[in-house]
């Protein structure tokens, strides 16, 4: 394995790189709260579900447990300052109600109007994994800015999501190829 390098001495990591940067929206003790997270992923297609890992000590966990709901908000690179702040300032010590213009769907889960994509979730289940609780939310509604929407759905180039990689934020690249199509060229050989 001369063409590979080990991550030693840092050891094994549970991260897949790169990861999306999202804001987890919760209402805690009657106030909107947003927490930055990178450990977020689709978890099921039917019914649609999203999973997000939240450290047990985070203020956000209180809101999810209290209301059995949360939102996943996809910020744009234009919101990198606000997004990073929501990751370093605890809602237990700082009032984040003015960070974003909150709107609500059916559940007690604030969504950030300034973010191009907002996903409202009801809590399906949670799993204690050690340092983090994995919250699995059933997607109840999805909102996309009209300027970022196409006939095929949300356009990631227009959304300009923030990508997280080893304590750094990155800007996403451009369209590469159609999924479930490009590989057919290999099968045709």
Radius of gyration equals 18 Å
Would you list the SSEs in sequence order as H and E?
EEEEEHEHEEEEEEHEEH
Low-confidence runs: none
CATH superfamily: Electron Transport, Fmn-binding Protein, Chain A
**What percentage of the residues does DSSP assign to strands (E)?**
35-45%
Can you describe what's shown?
The chain has 189 residues and is mainly beta. It has four helices and 14 strands. The strands form four sheets. It has a seven-stranded antiparallel β-sheet with strand order 3-2-6-9-10-5-4. A three-stranded antiparallel β-sheet has the order 1-13-14, with no helix packed on it. The longest helix is centred in the middle third of the chain and has 9 residues, at 59-67. The protein is globular, with a radius of gyration of 18 Å.
Helices, strands, pairings?
Blueprint (H helix, E strand, L loop, with lengths): L18 E2 L1 E7 L2 E7 L2 E5 L4 E7 L3 H9 L1 E6 L5 H9 L13 E2 L7 E2 L4 E12 L3 E13 L4 E2 L2 E2 L1 H4 L2 E4 L2 E4 L12 H4 L2
Antiparallel strand pairs: 1-13, 2-3, 2-6, 4-5, 5-10, 6-9, 7-8, 9-10, 11-12, 13-14
Question: What structural keywords apply?
Answer:
189 residues, mainly beta, Pnp Oxidase, Chain A, 7-stranded antiparallel β-sheet, 40% strand, globular
């Amino acid at each position: 394995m001369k063409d590979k390098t080990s991550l030693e001495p840092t050891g094994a990591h549970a991260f897949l790189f790169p990861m999306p940067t999202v804001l987890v929206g919760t209402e805690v003790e009657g106030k909107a709260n947003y927490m930055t997270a990178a450990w977020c992923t689709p978890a099921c297609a039917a019914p649609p579900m999203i999973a997000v890992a939240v450290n047990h000590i985070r203020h956000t966990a209180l809101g999810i447990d209290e209301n059995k709901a949360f939102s996943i908000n996809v910020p744009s690179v234009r919101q990198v300052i606000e997004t990073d702040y929501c990751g370093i300032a605890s809602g237990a010590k700082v009032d984040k109600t003015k960070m974003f213009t909150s709107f609500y769907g059916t559940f007690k889960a604030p969504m950030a109007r300034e973010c191009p994509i907002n996903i409202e979730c009801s809590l399906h289940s949670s799993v204690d994994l050690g340092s983090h609780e994995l919250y699995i939310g059933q997607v109840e509604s999805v909102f996309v800015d009209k300027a970022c929407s196409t006939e095929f759905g949300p356009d990631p180039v227009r959304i300009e999501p923030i990508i997280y990689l080893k304590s750094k934020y990155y800007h996403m690249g451009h369209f590469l190829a159609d999924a479930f199509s490009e590989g057919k060229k290999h099968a045709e050989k």
